Hints:
The chain is mainly beta. It has one domain (about 1-460): Porin (Beta Barrel), CATH 2.40.160.10. The chain has six helices and 18 strands. The protein has a 16-stranded antiparallel barrel with strand order 1-2-3-4-5-6-7-9-10-12-13-14-15-16-17-18. The longest helix is centred in the N-terminal third of the chain and has 17 residues, at about 1-20. This is Cytochrome C. It comes from Limobrevibacterium gyesilva.
Amino acid sequence: MRGTGWTIAFLAVVVLLASERSAQAIPSFAAQTGQPCTACHIGGYGPQLTPLGRAFKIGGYTQSGGSGVRSQIPLSAMIFGSYTNTQEGVPPDQRTHHYGSNGNFALDQISGFVAGRVTDFAGGFVQFTYSNIPNASHLDNTDLRPYTTTFDLGDRELRVGISLNNTPTVQDPYNTTFAWGFPYIASGLAPTPAAQPVLAGAFAGSTLGYSVYGWYDKKLYLEIGAYNTMSPYLLARTGNFFTVGSSQGMMPYIRAAYEWNWSQQSAHVGALYLQSNVNPATAGRITDGSFGRDHYRDYAFDASYEYLGTGTHIVTVQGIYTHENQDLTGSSSSANAANGTDFGNHYSLNQIRLNASYWFQNTYGFTAGWQKTWGPANPVLFSPGELTGSNNSKPNSNSFIFEADWVPFGKADSWKSPLANLKLGLQYIVYTQFNGAGNNYDGFGRNAAGNNTLYAFAWLAF
């Protein structure tokens, strides 16, 4: 089991680093459209989208309307730093290189963006990121729309398009899904639960995805596509890694959603599906299918509600439930051969994420979230290990997330609008269960509450 524990510890670190999210609310989009950030983003910074913001994204980032030289330059940048403090410091042998066990200031990200309109029918969003936490650079969120157009169907409109992207759900226009879901920003230094559905980011940055979509009457959204992991050569040059493994064949992806917009309110319900057959990862860019493959099937159901009103008082509610079926033939066979065990192949995982937010004048915001993950004991993926392990091999975790934000810019009359935007935030995460238990969850005496995290951040886009 020791070898399996080291593998899961490595994957947990990679997932932790991949969990650092960044928003789409970038000045080049505001300059291009001639609209303030609040037109497309709730809270004036994002990434939560208003109905206009969803239309802009589904329309391939092609909407125009801005004036001047800046509206023709599809370049932006972003930088954010933070302070992280957990209730208990991480053990000295588990701390991130060049950081202390607790109470750390960090330069989380410096990002450059090439994002905006190319023609009336094409646009895109490409992010390049450096982080001081792993002291590395990589190709980050990427969503290219090489072609999109509309068809008039009587008194209805059909928008169709193509997306080429590098992360399942990065192209999705509904912020209940994982690439842009709450928490929209998270610490890269605090421990995070090991168990996550693969749809929640296991293929972030390591895949090439191709999909076609249609949006009928600005209500019914349908998308179908497929993903394939990058080669080790391409991963090395984009600065990314395998997590669960490399795909064997194409991984089908399906998305359906229906939305309503009325009286300055908006709501949607939807579903997602991702099937992945993978050769299990043995190191960052190495996988091994000699013992067989692992098979994951993810089913997700999501919904949201937005009250926009006049912009003075804004309320949003979002939720997503995911069920994952796992056939871990490759990982279980490898673990059995290495450790003389007799683990089975079939497991499952469930997760629910809910959050509600209130914003006053798109300037002062408060969000409360709940995330619960559960499933049967899974000794193939989860074993005892200091800080990141599970003493009882269960994936169960339960957390509550509270965040207060101040966004002084992003409005039509803001200073240097639309060339600068700023978000200052304070986040606190409370764990009642972590990697299978509330007390001594890792088998080394650490309790779930020891990972309670205070995270303060400053986030600037220009």
